[in-house]
Amino acid sequence: MGQENNHWSQLWNLRMPKRIRCFMWLLQHDRLLTNSRFHRMQLRFPFCHQCEESVETTLHVMRDCPLAKVVWVNKFRARYWEVFLIVIICNSG
Predict the structure, then answer these.
(1) Domain count, the chain
(2) Which structural domain range is residue 52 located in?
(3) Which of 53, 56, 58, 60 is the most buried (most CB within 10 A)?
(4) Residues 43-54 pLDDT 10s
(5) What is the mean pLDDT of residues 65-87?
(6) Residues 36, 57: contact at Cβ < 8 Å?
(7) At residue 19, does pLDDT exceed 70?
(8) What is the three-state SS of the chain?
(9) Residue 60 in contact with residue 39, Cβ under 8 Å?
């Protein structure tokens, strides 16, 4: 728990807009309002509206959806893309 609090403290102290810090907190704690989450509340079908290929989880929204891949590939240089994927995979487990 101490390490988790340390990560949170580091995140909260970053110099960025509060809305981005809050988004990062939601992402870190798997609290994004995805279709998968709504489906558990029996409010929606769990599938992604963009690709309709798989269940819309946080990981799908941030990495696996073809639309997300286009966004991230355009934001990161090719040499950083694999590192970005590994970081998300390691932190999602």
Answers:
(1) 1
(2) 2-92
(3) 56
(4) 999 999 999 889
(5) 74
(6) yes
(7) yes
(8) CHHHHHHHHHHHCCCCCHHHHHHHHHHHCCCCCCHHHHHHCCCCCCECCCCCCCECCHHHHHHHCHHHHHHHHHHCCHHHHHHHHHHHHHHHC
(9) no
